[in-house]
Write a structure and sequence with these properties.
Number of domains: 2
Number of helices: 7
Number of strands: 10
CATH topology of the largest domain: Cobalt-precorrin-4 Transmethylase, domain 1
CATH superfamily of the largest domain: Tetrapyrrole methylase, N-terminal domain
Strand content: 15-25%
Order of helices and strands: EHEEHEHEHEHEHEEHE
Bound molecules: S-adenosylmethionine
Length: 275
């Protein structure tokens, strides 16, 4: 009996947006792949690394605007592996940091599909660096915590205990924190974090529309509203914010993030195989 030859899926980290932060390995796989599946936090210019024969699928997700469920994406990956040899599943930042990459890898393994993860530069490190904020400093931060501000639907374990976190880490880096920022700040202060703790929000880090605002923690929300800061943004809280060295900030990429568009009209292909 001959077994069906299945392709291999690479879960590739695309970094925070600046293409110069793509790894050499990511670029090699983009050039080689015959199918590319990508999210909404990926500049459309990244498609240009692929060959003319590569098929492209956009499965972007944004809060309250999920075009495809995670289950659908998982099943689609398995379908693609049946008739493609090299599939790149390109995910913003790092695939294993708040990217649901582990769920996709687990699913692929369960379905007997070969899978390999390719780490990427996470936005929680890159966005602060692009405004010159260090995440650790001998005088201000010996520990840093990466935490999600979005408690998620159907999570199988307890949500973040912000009150306990308040004094457990010198620096706090929050992903997906824009929607619940009011609650998060109140909980951190209730847990004992000094309301005057230096804080920053970096929006669209590394990209041409990057914005950074800074304020003491108890004034951060107000400043966010005044400046109209939305997602995607990284929040940094801790004395490290006062050690910002603006002069070492890299030049921004001239790319921007695609506007979310459910119809995917810009993409070469946006079909979705459901079974
Ligand atoms: C679903 S998480 C994915 C995180 C990703 N796996 C990573 O490692 O960066 C999406 C969140 O990442 C953050 N994010 C991603 N790209 C960003 C960027 N260029 N600038 C600021 N925040 C970004 C935002 O907090 C956004 O809500």
């Amino acid at each position: 009996m001959t077994s069906i030859k299945k392709g291999k899926v690479y879960l590739v980290g695309a970094g925070p947006g600046d293409p110069e932060l793509l790894t050499v390995k990511a670029i090699r796989l983009l050039k080689k792949c015959d199918a590319l599946i990508y999210d909404s936090l990926i500049p459309k210019e990244f498609i240009q690394y692929t060959s003319n024969s590569c098929r492209h699928f956009h499965v972007g997700k944004r809060r309250a605007q999920h075009s495809f469920s995670q289950d659908q994406i998982n099943r689609f990956l398995v379908e693609l592996a049946k008739d493609h040899s090299c599939i790149v599943r390109l995910k913003g930042g790092d695939p294993f940091l708040f990217g649901r990459g582990a769920e996709e890898a687990e699913w692929l393994v369960q379905n007997d599909i070969e899978v390999e993860v390719v780490p990427g530069i996470t936005s929680g490190i890159a966005a602060p660096s692009y405004v010159g904020i260090p995440l650790t400093h001998r005088d201000a931060g010996s520990s840093v915590t990466f935490v999600t501000g979005h408690d998620g639907d159907n999570k199988k374990f307890q949500a973040v205990n912000w009150r306990k976190l308040a004094n457990a880490s010198d620096g706090i880096v929050i992903y997906m924190g824009m929607h619940n920022l009011d609650y998060i700040i109140n909980e951190l202060i209730a847990g004992g974090l000094d309301p005057s703790t230096p804080s920053a929000i970096i929006h669209q880090g590394t990209l041409m529309n990057q914005k950074c605002i800074k304020a003491p923690l108890d004034r951060l929300l107000n400043k966010k509203k005044t400046n109209g800061i939305l997602s995607p943004s990284i929040v940094v809280i801790g004395k490290i914010v006062n050690h910002q060295i603006e002069k070492c900030s890299p030049i921004l990429s001239n790319l921007s993030l695609p506007k979310f568009n459910k119809s995917c009209s810009r993409e070469r292909e946006c079909i979705f195989v459901e079974h």
